[in-house]
Specification:
2 domains; globular; 48% helix; alpha+beta; Glutaredoxin; Glutathione S-transferase Yfyf (Class Pi), Chain A, domain 2; 10 helices; 4-stranded mixed beta sheet; 4 strands
Length: 220
């Protein structure tokens, strides 16, 4: 689709390691929509997110932050919904299902993925996905979180292991991201769930994020 006035001046503020699940979500959303955008890096380690200019822009001093012309918005789920409403189907790909109950369920899952499974996040941080895999086994707490994730994914994935709601939506990418915390470190994942996660991970928009050049991991 040709670039029009409404699609110009999209800027995504992200972080230098390219390992944030929230930046990932917005990056994939923009790529799935086919929207041209510029990336600008905010160095979180040096506190650039707290600089007055960025704090005023983003409101919450967090990345991702999306700027669209004279409007700026942070928080990845809010950005996804803004993009879906501003660049709607059928001219642009949907990020969330059209059917109200499926759309509500997708919001539920996205909210859950942002707010739960903390022990798993701690022991399988995103650096283990994009740098070196984890070598230590999961603790009992993290294994309980992994079991909850895998059980929920198994319940959600439809017969045939396709997208959760018939056609790809952003929640598929986000669920696959969380499942890859386990897959990338070789933790056990049931084959059906693994097939689903790998299929979503293979999407061009997702792989564009996965293949981003990354700097060396700073020392701990």
């Amino acid at each position: 689709m040709a670039t029009t006035a409404s699609t110009r001046d999209l800027v995504l503020y992200g972080e230098p390691l390219w390992d944030s699940p929230y930046v990932f979500s917005v990056f994939v959303a923009l790529r799935e929509k086919g929207l041209p955008f510029e990336v600008r890096i905010v160095d979180l380690a040096h506190g650039e997110q707290r600089a007055p200019a960025f704090k005023q822009l983003s409101l919450t001093a967090r990345v991702p932050c999306l700027v669209h012309g004279d409007f700026a918005l942070s928080e990845s789920q809010a950005i996804a919904e803004y993009l879906d409403e501003t660049f709607p189907a059928p001219d642009y790909a949907r990020l969330l299902p059209a059917e109200p109950r499926a759309r509500a369920r997708s919001r539920q899952i996205m909210g859950w993925l942002r707010s739960d499974l903390m022990a798993l996040r701690e022991e399988r941080p995103t650096t283990t996905m994009f740098y070196a895999p984890a070598s230590a086994p999961l603790s009992a707490r993290a294994q309980a979180a992994a079991d909850k994730l895998l059980g929920t994914a198994d319940q959600l994935i439809p017969p045939g292991d396709g997208a959760l709601f018939g056609a790809f939506s952003l929640v598929d990418a986000e669920l696959s991201f969380m499942l890859h915390r386990l897959l990338c470190s070789g933790d056990p994942v049931p084959e059906r769930v693994a097939r689903y996660a790998r299929a979503q991970w293979a999407r061009p928009a997702v792989q564009a994020y996965v293949q981003q050049p990354r700097p060396p991991l700073p020392p701990a």
